[in-house]
Amino acid sequence: MNIRTVSTTPFSDQKPGTSGLRKSVSVFQQPHYLENFVQSIFDSLEGYQGQTIVLGGDGRYYNRQAIQIILKIASANGVGRVLVGQGGIMSTPAASCIIRQYQAFGGIILSASHNPGGPDGDFGIKYNVTNGGPAPEKVTEAIYARSKVIDSYKISDSPDVNLDKLSVLRMGEMAIEVIDPVEPYARLMESLFDFDSIRQLLQSDFRICMDSLHAVTGPYAKNIFEKRLGAASGTVTNGKPLEDFGGGHPDPNLVYAHDLVEVMFGDNAPDFGAASDGDGDRNMILGRNFFVTPSDSLAVLTANAHLVPGYKDGISGVARSMPTSAAADRVAAKLGIDCYETPTGWKFFGNLLDADKVTLCGEESFGTGSNHVREKDGLWAVLFWLNILAATGKSVEDIVKEHWATYGRNFYSRHDYEEVDKAKATELMERLRGMVGTMKGQKFGEYEVEYADDFSYTDPIDSSVSQKQGIRIRFTDGSRIVFRLSGTGTKGATLRVYLESYEPDASKHDLDTQLALKPLITMAEEIALIRQYTEREEPTVIT
Ligand code: VG1
Ligand code: CO
């Protein structure tokens, strides 16, 4: 086998964002673009030679070609063994699970998550470390630094390998194992949840609908719900992963998972509905005519963890990203456990999980997970909910409303202004940064600012500091407005405005969310001049 060293010139735009490097497919298809980034990963790591790497993706357009290229670069760089998912498929949480189970050195996950796919869509690549979690900032910064000066990469001249057949192959010195990407993950789920009770529930007249949005969870959901748990065939809809996700936007929210929403809010709706995103790490939970906000979901899972076999001995703590509502904080206070507030992105939970400071974590962006892996996990959240429903015999709506009655309700919504002008969005943020220092005590109608800052996080384990993680403005009544720019978009900028208020009075819990948050929505506009800077009258997406 021949190894070639190819001269290249750096690209200036290979800085990983909230979750890896995401660009349009056409950017990734430029000569040397993917190769440069993958070589930059290997150049920034130490001690991977002869070790095992996990490789797979969400099945989007360019997944298969990228895997062939990465295998050849891995082989040329002296990787010992690559475990690749059959068909190139591996959900993000399954990749995390497989890295941990096989004690691999790390993994490369190909996904742009909830971003649309296909030749005109997006592609992405992310490196995960030995604990199965996304590389921390010091690793992604090293990869980026390397990508700016790289002048060559190494690649093997071997032919493409067959990814569709379970087998053990060789490429030069390197072994390639094409593995079943579902089995190890499904077994892990069986070890955490009461499959017998869930099976009984699903075989009663309780009806569920699981929408995989033509993304990676299809094979996982069919195996778990239809095969292992005996749900009716057809329970999993849009279960075949397609390279363009059927033209859809694989983002499980009320806007993009509209088919499921129609079913769950229609006549004779099923009892439970769920959807997951492109790479399977997000989840949306619906009851009959009822939507569970992700922030509430984290709080409910925390409050009910004792009902689930994998967590029945108690949880050590809980963590949420800063913009996520404080609903989980209230549960933590009652349970007498710690609650941590981290910047946006799953990489910030890794150290807390490794040190057993927290067992559960979550983000407002439809992400929940636990110490079973080091990524958020969509189907895990669905099973957790089903386990709670099976154990209590209650409906989704009852569970959430009883939760609000006990803890009070955190009304919560996120308003996204997508693909706005980048320079203007940056200006909006800079202006806010300049304002926060003097906002304390300032009054807006009945609201008084308790504190305002640009969130900075010091990791309690390794003391690393992450600055400029979002503008928070908190009022004395506990309500909040948070502003940040997305780190996963590929076109222009996306401004996210997060709104939260707290209502202890149960007689007011049925109020419409947007109505309850109206004063904050108006204030956000007034403070940040959103319309002026974004040149938009309304948000693109409200979740
Ligand atoms: C978004 C979400 C964030 C999430 C990230 C990756 O990031 O807000 O909570 O961790 O996506 O999720 P941003 O920077 O665009 O706000 V995924 O499912 O795209 O890997
Ligand atoms: Co995702």
Describe the structure.
There is one protein chain. The chain has three domains: 179 residues, Alpha-D-Glucose-1,6-Bisphosphate, subunit A, domain 3 (Alpha-D-Glucose-1,6-Bisphosphate, Chain A, domain 3, 3-Layer(aba) Sandwich), CATH 3.40.120.10; 222 residues, Alpha-D-Glucose-1,6-Bisphosphate, subunit A, domain 3 (Alpha-D-Glucose-1,6-Bisphosphate, Chain A, domain 3); 134 residues, Alpha-D-phosphohexomutase, C-terminal domain (TATA-Binding Protein). Helix content is 32%, strand content 26%. The strands form six sheets. Strands 2-6-5-3-4-9-8 form a seven-stranded mixed beta sheet, with helices on both faces. α2 packs across α3, α7 packs across α13 and α10 packs parallel to α11. The structure holds alpha-D-glucose-1-phosphate-6-vanadate and cobalt (II) ion. Cobalt (II) ion (CO) binds next to loops.
List keywords for this structure.
binds alpha-D-glucose-1-phosphate-6-vanadate; 543 residues; Alpha-D-Glucose-1,6-Bisphosphate, Chain A, domain 3; globular; 27 strands; 7-stranded mixed β-sheet; 3 domains; alpha/beta
Question: Considering the protein shown, what is the CATH homologous superfamily of the largest domain?
Answer: Alpha-D-Glucose-1,6-Bisphosphate, subunit A, domain 3
Morphology call: globular
User: Count the helices. How many?
Assistant: 18
Question: What is the total tally of β strands?
Answer: 27
Taking the sheet with the most strands, its summary is: 7 strands, mixed
Whole-number count of domains: 3
Low-confidence stretches: none
Radius of gyration: 23 Å
